[in-house]
Write a structure and sequence with these properties.
The protein is α/β, with parallel strands linked by helices. 56% of the residues lie in helices and 13% in strands.
Length: 192
Amino acid sequence: MRVIGITGGVGSGKSEVLKFLKERYGAAVCQMDETAKELQRSGTECFSRIVEAFGREMIGADGELDRGRLGACVFSDPEKLKILNRIVHPAVLDAVREDIKAKAAAGVPVYVVEAALLPDAGAELCDELWYIYAREDVRSERLKASRHYTDEKIRSMIASQPSEEAFRRACTVVIDNSGPFENTMRQIGDRI
């Protein structure tokens, strides 16, 4: 089974690329952020360790992690982000490894792993890494339109992620998703 890692900064359009890969090429898709959320639900080991590290104020009224509060805490402090990543990343990698094994056993030919932090965590799971690139102004406009983020929040999130240079060094393929999606589809078709 071919395992492709898809990475890129927030707002680069990774979700649209994943949707296209699934619909056009029948790829099995694993979004590491979604796996991480599942592993952080109340009652899990990750949940307990996060509360221990960051305090009970990270628990919302529903008894689950208050993701907004936790995000504000870690995206404003690189050291806190490292602590969170040390808690969550190993558990996510184990879960994804198991899913890859299951999909391979089921005969799935292509498995796509998506994560903004793949160059730092999870690259060893993949046969190749694709960097979904978009200019920063395009990313900012997408995040304002889709998530209604402020300029300050967008700058903070972008600053907390690996640089464009780091993504380009880590990845074997660069897909430019700054323009019309038809251009992106052609680039993907050339690689698949």
